[in-house]
Amino acid sequence: MTINICDGIEIEYGEKSLPYIEEVITYFNGNYLYVMDFFELKSIGKPVKIILNDDYETFKRQLANTYYDGDISKIRPYYNGYAVNEANSKIAIINYMSLPENYQSNSLEDLEKGIIHEFSHICCDAMTNYNYDDTYWVYEGVATFLARQYENSKLTASFEQIKNDEFVEYSNYRCLFDTLVDNYSHEEVLETIKGNHPNDLIDRIFSLCQEKTKKEHKID
Ligand SMILES: [Zn+2]
User: Fold this and answer.
1) Residue 7: pLDDT above 90?
2) Which CATH architecture has domain 1-129?
3) What confidence score (pLDDT) does residue 219 get?
4) Is the model's pLDDT at 137 over the cut of 60?
5) CB 100 within 8 A of CB 56
6) Alpha carbon of 129 to ligand 1 centroid (Å)
7) Which of 6, 47, 81, 177 is 20 to 30 A off residue 162, Cα-Cα?
């Protein structure tokens, strides 16, 4: 089944999603303009299709084929969606009720925020014409920030891990990106996303974020 959410954005879903599809659409409608406004985008420039997958195994296989050369072992137990941005934009997301037990992103809220997260990546691609800063802290930071995921996060990764762009918990990227937003103008934030920033920006952001973490979470 397919529903047109708004101009240029549609959602395809299966039977298992019927009980909550309306809520998912309402959540998306209430949040996607905020994301586009952040990137100062009037339009994405191409159709966006959101696919709500009912079957976890299918989802996992498609995700592995898209990003990990078919290696299913690379799928971490909190991945619930991904974006593919080619001729058309596609957001694939898994029905949270189809996730295995003990999976970390297994609520309706995770699903709704997951769609906004992937939508943020699509907007980021559109704003920068794919010329974005692809370090994790910037690229995943902006998506977790706009999707309001990992709220009140603390910095747990080391400076070396971030500086070397190692893959760490997403909460670190959210925390670092919050620090950027709190200390720089919106224009500077957008320029950072485009990769127009001094190389040592992360040095300053990291120490500010570290101070913030110490203060807010009372860590010595
Ligand atoms: Zn992401």
Assistant:
1) no
2) 3-Layer(aba) Sandwich (3.40)
3) 59
4) yes
5) yes
6) 17
7) 81
Please tell me the distance between residue 141's alpha carbon and the centre of ligand 1 in angstroms.
8
Burial letters 24-53, b for 16+ CB under 10 A, else e: bbebbeebbeebbebbebeebeeebbbbbb
Q: How far is the CA of 219 from the centre of ligand 1 (A)?
A: 28
Domain boundaries in the chain? 1-129, 131-220
What's the pTM value of the predicted model, to 2 decimals? 0.92
Span from the CA of 44 to the centroid of ligand 1 (angstroms): 18
Q: Average pLDDT of 5-14? A: 92
Distance 14 CA to ligand 1 centre (A): 24
Whether pLDDT at 88 is above 90:
no
Report CA(17)–ligand 1 centroid distance (Å).
23
Distance 136 CA to ligand 1 centre (A): 9
